[in-house]
Amino acid sequence: MDSELRQQLIEKYKAGPDVLAEALAGASEAELDRRPGPQDWTAREVVHHTADSEMTSAIRLRKLLAEDGAQIQGYDEQEFARRLHYDRPIEGSLAAVRGARAASAALLERLTPEEWGREGTHSESGRYTVEGWLEIYAAHCHDHAEQIRRARGAS
User: Where in the sequence is the domain holding 100, given as residue range(s)?
Assistant: First the structure.
């Protein structure tokens, strides 16, 4: 990955919380709890999932940077949704997304070329690199913002 693409992905990553907030702007409680289909998540559930994933991703980045041969553990997002009370208010989860992103973006902007080359092993997907991490998480909030828009618009 060249430095120009890397910087574009960092900028997209930093914009994620605002994109998520825009997708939620003006949402009523009914819209937050509207389920588009029997197996689909509500906007509220998507927000909580996004926060759980962002906090997990922040730790994954730190493990990649701080541990040689880091072992990155996967998790069961459906089980998180079932057990972590995804029916609660969203404000704390939105703050968690914003905080995790701000802290991780500050790290990303300081990485050396050697640090960009660090890698570990993910329990589910194998080889896991800092650059691969950025590719995944740069789009994460944007993807879930679109999911929120669809959930809010469902009838």
Answer: 3-153
